[in-house]
């Protein structure tokens, strides 16, 4: 049975999924295809069952796959372009029981409580802390992803003392979603959206349809980022949840969330692939409406970002009131670094941010940043999957902690060198391939 490792930090991790119903609004020119009527995200956060009056009331394990399972099956079958009959066995044998090792709907741990716990127990592994709230991280997934696809990273950061909002984008980039809070009687399912599924107001050449759709989806995602942030800020600021709902329909106790997250400064944006493009798009555009306050972003972490949907030249950071741009850090996998034109553009983009840093993990693949490779059963799992993800998560945490240089000093680093590798005897493709020089897990500094 596939399993996921426990979060490594000193704090236990809770997870609660929220939805925010809003007045339906069309984004861009694609109103029928991109209709924003509900924002959804899973919050990962520090918790402590020792501090809970009902420690046995909160079970450990958040389903990794969307429920009901038929939605997940239809979603992944549609995304992969295969029959649902082929997906059902995989779901039943591998995915139906897969759970994220976090405590479902457990109350968040306040910073004050964590501080007192470390004082009361001198042997506690919980680090000493101040009375300030936990830092806030907003995570944006890539194509084919969702709010649980990167649970290892999100739970890792939460176990270190952060609140992470993992968005479930409703822009047709995930395999499946189901609206729940607008009207339960008319709940509907949304599937992955392909360019050929879209009817444009004005004729768009077929060769431009893909990137045109992605541009509209980026605007949609910026709305989701801002709406999720401001709804959660209201919840943690004054305990006011307004229209915010729990996905399971249970009541939100606003008082337990008050003061949990620091939303007024030092917010971090993190995203993978198209989520990385979302990060750059958010940082290079003003808030989506004139009455929407900016997000006080201090750190931006892009994981193997896909740049093609972004306008060229650019994007570049917009000027802020104090002329200070967020700290920028990009972690690439080997494939995107060997993609010549794309990597050249990425280097130029990172230079636009003062002090921006760019590294590549040798041997890492585009999926190395997600849960996919580590949740496979041992016979099917690559031996480097867990070490790669652990290294990625550790260095991501170090960047958010402003300890990046110390973390890099503890890794094997090298300059970028490329060599040609002969195909294996069993490979169908007999062409030689370009590879980075180094061992799996080495870090190339650019």
UniProtKB/TrEMBL annotation:
UniProt keyword Hydrolase present: yes
One Pfam match: PAF-AH_p_II
GO biological process: lipid catabolic process
GO molecular function: 1-alkyl-2-acetylglycerophosphocholine esterase activity
Key words of the record: Hydrolase, Lipid degradation, Lipid metabolism
Protein name (Swiss-Prot/TrEMBL): Putative phospholipase
Catalytic function, reaction form: a 1-O-alkyl-2-acetyl-sn-glycero-3-phosphocholine + H2O = a 1-O-alkyl-sn-glycero-3-phosphocholine + acetate + H(+)
Gene3D superfamilies given in the database record: alpha/beta hydrolase (3.40.50.1820)
Family: Belongs to the serine esterase family.
PANTHER family on file: PLATELET-ACTIVATING FACTOR ACETYLHYDROLASE (PTHR10272)
Keyword match Phosphoprotein: no
Residues of the active site: 273, 304, 366
SUPFAM superfamilies, sorted: alpha/beta-Hydrolases (SSF53474)
Species annotation: Heterobasidion irregulare (strain TC 32-1)
E.C. code: 3.1.1.47
């Amino acid at each position: 049975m596939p399993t996921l490792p426990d979060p490594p930090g000193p704090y236990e991790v809770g997870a609660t999924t929220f939805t925010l119903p809003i007045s339906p609004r069309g984004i861009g020119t694609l109103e029928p295809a991109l209709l924003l009527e509900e924002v959804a995200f899973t919050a990962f956060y520090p918790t402590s069952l020792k501090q809970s009056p009902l420690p046995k009331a909160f079970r450990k394990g958040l389903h990794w796959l969307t429920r009901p399972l038929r939605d997940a099956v239809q979603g992944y079958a549609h995304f992969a372009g295969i029959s649902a009959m082929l997906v059902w066995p995989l779901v039943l044998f591998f995915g139906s029981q897969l759970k994220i090792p976090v405590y479902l709907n457990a109350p968040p741990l306040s910073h004050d409580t964590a501080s007192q716990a470390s004082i009361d127990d001198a042997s506690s592994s919980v680090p000493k802390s101040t009375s300030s709230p936990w830092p806030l991280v907003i995570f944006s997934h890539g194509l084919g992803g969702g709010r649980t696809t990167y649970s290892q990273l999100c739970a890792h950061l939460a176990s270190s003392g952060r609140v992470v909002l993992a968005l479930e984008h409703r822009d047709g980039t995930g395999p499946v979603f189901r609206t729940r809070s607008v009207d339960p009687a008319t709940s509907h399912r949304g599937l992955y959206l392909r360019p050929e599924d879209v009817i444009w107001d004005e004729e768009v050449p077929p060769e431009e349809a893909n990137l045109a759709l992605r541009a509209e989806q980026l605007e949609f995602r910026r709305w989701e980022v801002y709406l999720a942030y401001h709804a959660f800020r209201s919840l943690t600021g004054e305990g006011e949840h307004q229209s915010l709902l729990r996905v399971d329909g249970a009541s939100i106790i606003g008082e337990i969330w008050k003061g949990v997250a620091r939303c007024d400064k030092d917010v971090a944006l993190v995203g993978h692939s198209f989520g990385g493009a979302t990060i750059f798009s958010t940082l290079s555009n003003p808030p989506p409406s004139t009455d929407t306050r900016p997000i006080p972003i201090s750190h931006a972490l892009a994981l193997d970002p896909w740049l093609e949907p972004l306008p060229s030249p650019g994007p570049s950071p917009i000027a802020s009131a104090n002329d200070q741009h967020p700290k920028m850090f990009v972690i690439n996998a080997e494939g995107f670094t060997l993609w010549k034109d794309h990597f050249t553009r990425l280097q130029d983009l990172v230079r636009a941010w003062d002090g921006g840093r760019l590294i590549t993990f040798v041997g890492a693949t585009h999926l190395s940043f997600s849960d996919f490779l580590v949740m496979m059963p041992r016979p099917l799992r690559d031996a480097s999957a867990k070490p790669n993800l652990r290294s990625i998560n550790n260095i991501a945490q170090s960047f958010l902690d402003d300890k990046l240089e110390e973390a890099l000093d503890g890794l094997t680093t090298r300059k970028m060198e490329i060599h040609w590798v002969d195909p294996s005897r069993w490979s169908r493709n007999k062409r030689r391939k370009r590879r980075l020089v180094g061992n799996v897990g080495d870090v190339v500094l650019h």
